Amino acid sequence: MVKITNKIADSMLGEVAQEKRFYCADGKYLKSLPELKFALEEMSDEIYSYHSNEVKTDFSNWVREVIGDAKLSRDLLKSASRTQAVKYVADRVTWLQNKTANR
Prior knowledge:
Order of helices and strands: HEEHHHHH
Oligomer: single chain
Helix content: 55-70%
Shape: globular
């Protein structure tokens, strides 16, 4: 298990390079965990299901491979609904923000 330092938390909350953005089926693109949280809150269940279903785990993959957050990636794999995914991402964003604020 990797210890999340303030520097790592900052990196996880920051914007990713343009070529690493997450492109949603609705045409929007995401470049950070806070944007993922907002997008999940606003997107339709159909768009969520397009990216997260029995065959595809796009959100989890992006969080693990691009953001580098294995814990949130595992949580998203367990997520049974868009609402639950929002909660996982929101809780993690808040935790990371608190981590960077407590320097």
